[in-house]
Specification:
alpha+beta; three-stranded mixed sheet; 3 strands
């Protein structure tokens, strides 16, 4: 599957303006999706309820490296 170019991992990055920009390392089989949080605190729960990090393949070393590069502590199936 890796050689076919199929997306194995999709990483959802949440930008709320409080942290430095998230690095975007490129790995085969990885796709980034960006979502900007609303500024109003009361509106944020709607976004957080739908946030997920989709792992299409749990044993991908490239995926783990990408998740760690993006969030530092990301684990399999967890939101960064």
């Amino acid at each position: 599957m890796e050689s076919s170019g199929d997306v194995l991992i999709e990483i959802l990055v949440i930008e709320d303006g409080t942290d430095p920009p998230v690095p975007k390392p490129e790995f085969t089989g990885m796709a980034w999706r960006y979502l900007e949080l609303p500024r109003a605190e009361e509106d944020r729960h709607q976004i957080w309820d739908s946030i997920q990090l989709l792992w299409h393949r749990f044993d991908s070393p490239q995926g783990m490296a990408a998740a760690r590069a993006a969030g530092g502590d990301a684990a399999r199936g967890e939101a960064i």
